[in-house]
Structures are given as C-alpha cells and as structure tokens.
Amino acid sequence: MKVTQKEMAEARLPLAFRDYCAHLLIPLNRCRIKKLWMPWECEEERHAHEKCEYEDFLRRSRIMTKLKAAEKEAN
Asked: Coiled-coil intervals in this record (predicted)?
C-alpha cells in the first residue's frame, strides 16, 4: 500500500476502493471533480488506474494458481 488509511479516509474513498491501487484513484477522483466528470478529461489518470487494477488482478490470479497447485500437490 502506497497510501495510508488516514489518507484514504481524508480522500473519502469508499471501503471497496481502498485497495492496492488507491494511490492512483485519489488523484483521479480529484481530477474528475475538478473537470466536472467530463469523459474526455483525466484520461492519463484513468488509464493509469485501470492498468494498476488489471496488473493487481493478474498478480492475485497468479497467487491463487500457485495456492491451488500447492493444495493439489499436498493431496
């Protein structure tokens, strides 16, 4: 985690979004508010956050695959 619980609380992030990529979501939300949620604004921030979420998904998938393989091997 690159941001603390206090920083996430100050940014008023919902609990569901306080994950590994919260450090990118905070500036994205600030940009969205500043630009009145225009879809063509804040593209760099949005793509950075989406890429982080995808990489986190892949990381968690690899971990789960390893755990399942270890469980299968143990049985």
From this structure: none
